[in-house]
Amino acid sequence: MAGCVVLVTADRRSAELSSALTRRGATVRHAPALSIVPHEHDDQLLLDTKRLLESPPDIVVITTGIGFRGWVEAADAAGVADELIDVLSGARIVARGPKAHGAIQAAGLQADWVAESETSAEILDLLLTEGVAGVRIAVQHHGAGADGVDTELSAAGADVVSLVVYRWGPSPQPAALRESVHAAAAGQIDAVVFTSAPGAAAWLAEAELQDQWTGIAARMASGALVAAAVGPVTAKPLQDRGITPLIPDRGRLGALVRALVGHFEQAQSTAVLTSAGPLQVRSTVALLDGHVLPVSPNGLEVLRLLADAGGDVVTRAQVLAVLPGDSADPHTAEVAVARLRDVCGRALIQTVVKRGYRLAT
């Protein structure tokens, strides 16, 4: 991933994700789209937990591993962890995916059923098919709520107790968030990584607020900007806007990093083939035959223009259009190309008499 600029929009576990990407050669920018309100600061959770202890549930739905662990930790801080575990052990436990299942097992409990698709829809399908009228069901939410689980179960006659273990708050770095959407639209970022649906929705909303969505959507549609989501739930806000994100085969950060690495390795095979080797032009660097070229920002834009043409001729006027200023002097274009040749090698860029320039392919 040498030369790739990757934007990490996560708050939680951002350091872990950033470190993994950096080890693979990427340059990482961090702009958390949302913050997480810690569970130990949420009095409502403790009130809801005590209400559940007083009237135990028949079924408990666990939607996230971190949420379940946080729930037990909050109960422990309040001195009721043992009571909570006892109550849960007497209920039927339904887990939304392997991470929730693992957290349940770590607490010494056993899940009775696991939604392998990691979606709330699969859980709803199971419970509604069985019938829930008169059944008391506790639902542990993640930060954005329970994806309509509460409403659907209540409508079917269940007595639902909702427990929000952590809540989403505004971005802790609003300036960085604002700058990130401008950078993504301007071509300064190669990939944006999302680890939660609320975070993805918040980043997209910021892009709209800053009037940058049109540019971002165009770059994503062309493949110049990659949107990567840790799983199908996280991907949905992007898909709702017509974006097809990169999704790993497993909903893990490690799998997400490997998917990104694989994507950019595959991109090498579709690079522009030149007489000097494969050429890739990324947001801030260019790679020729796998080596980073020390080109200036102006040179990078000229090289991007030539690469996009794929060996076809670009005119001096087109070169001038990507350079700063409003010069109409053909000599300015000639100087820019000459400087680029000094870095890339004179054979890479050919002059086509009376027409312009093209890459030697």
TrEMBL record:
Top-level taxon of origin: Bacteria
Assigned EC number: 4.2.1.75
Keyword Lyase recorded: yes
One Gene Ontology biological process: regulation of DNA-templated transcription
GO molecular function: DNA binding; uroporphyrinogen-III synthase activity
The keyword Lyase appears for this protein: yes
Segments of the chain annotated as binding DNA: 268-361
Keywords carried by this UniProt record: DNA-binding, Lyase
One of the Pfam families matching this protein, by short name: Trans_reg_C
OmpR/PhoB-type domain span: 268-361
PANTHER family: BLR5956 PROTEIN
Protein name (Swiss-Prot/TrEMBL): Uroporphyrinogen-III synthase
Organism: Pedococcus bigeumensis
